[in-house]
Design goal:
7-stranded mixed sheet, 7 strands, globular
Length: 187
């Protein structure tokens, strides 16, 4: 069941880039594996999913008004104008939402995205092109952000083709030294 798996190694690896105490949006959160990960690290969290059971499961973690039942593919964006220190998306693609997802990253915030690439159809589901990223598509979608890390390739156990991206919306006052986006966690 989506959201009950272990925390993605990609999300774990890059979660240190989310500003301390910053609010994290887990989009298409399922049962909230990443939402819980960030909450345990002191981040306020918001989860969005269309499954009422998933929302009921995360409500105690997210808190009042932060576990949102919404069909983001067929209804309005449930968080108009809101931005987040971290936006996490895994195993989910709805192309029409890519601009809204990128716009939801606050200044100084980070987008952590991981989902299936087009070659995944050769090893399993999803297999419909609508749900599989074309080569370089995730990089292009995050064009307004600074890419810190990107991968497009094959993983085993289970076999899957994925694209992964970590990108930040830079906040750099004039004359300030360049930010240091550590490529490994401090802890």
């Amino acid at each position: 069941m989506h959201g009950t798996e272990a925390v993605s190694a990609w999300v774990r690896r890059w979660s240190h880039l989310v500003p301390a105490g910053g609010e994290v949006l887990d989009l298409a959160c399922g049962r909230g594996r990443h939402l819980r990960w960030f909450a345990e690290r002191g981040h306020p969290v918001t989860g969005v999913d269309r499954d009422p059971e998933a929302i009921a499961a995360i409500a105690p973690v997210a808190g009042p008004g932060r576990a949102l039942l919404a069909d983001i593919e067929n209804g309005p964006w449930p968080l108009p104008g809101q931005t987040f220190a971290g936006v996490v998306v895994t195993n989910y693609l709805w192309r029409a939402l890519l601009p809204q997802i990128v716009a939801s990253v606050a200044e100084g915030g980070v987008l952590i995205y991981e989902t299936f690439g087009s070659d995944h159809a050769t090893v399993g589901k999803p297999s419909r092109p609508d749900f599989l990223l074309r080569p370089g598509e995730l990089l292009a979608a995050a064009g307004g952000l600074r890419t810190v890390a990107y991968e497009d390739g094959f993983c085993e156990s289970p076999d899957r083709f994925v694209q992964r991206l970590v990108a930040v919306r830079e906040r750099r006052p004039d004359g300030a030294p360049p930010p240091r986006y550590r490529l490994e966690s401090a802890g």
